[in-house]
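Query structure, 99 tokens:
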């Protein structure tokens, strides 16, 4: 069984792939930016914030057609996206949160 650090690294890699998927789609990117309130020029800085990558995966998971297209185009099982989300900070209640 993979350790927590390895699982988190794999989850981060998947989330970065998901961000690339979103950024490369002319319909998804504006929706992602509108929902998150992030400006396109600020994505790199925002990506350094805790929970950003979890938010990317939450965005993918929130719309089944998007999830299925991401899964098909990347060869990722849809269930792996939810599993990756749970391995990231702020992806579930098991991670420390700042107040």
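Result returned for the query:
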């Amino acid at each position: 069984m993979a350790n927590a650090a390895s699982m988190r690294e794999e989850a981060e890699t998947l989330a970065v792939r998901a961000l690339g998927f979103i950024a490369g789609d002319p319909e998804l990117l504006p929706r992602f930016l509108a929902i998150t309130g992030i400006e396109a020029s600020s994505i790199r800085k925002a990506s350094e914030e805790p929970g950003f990558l979890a938010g990317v995966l939450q965005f993918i998971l929130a719309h089944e057609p998007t999830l299925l297209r991401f899964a098909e185009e990347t060869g990722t099982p849809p269930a792996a996206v939810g599993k990756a989300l749970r391995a990231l900070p702020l992806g579930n209640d098991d991670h420390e949160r700042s107040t």
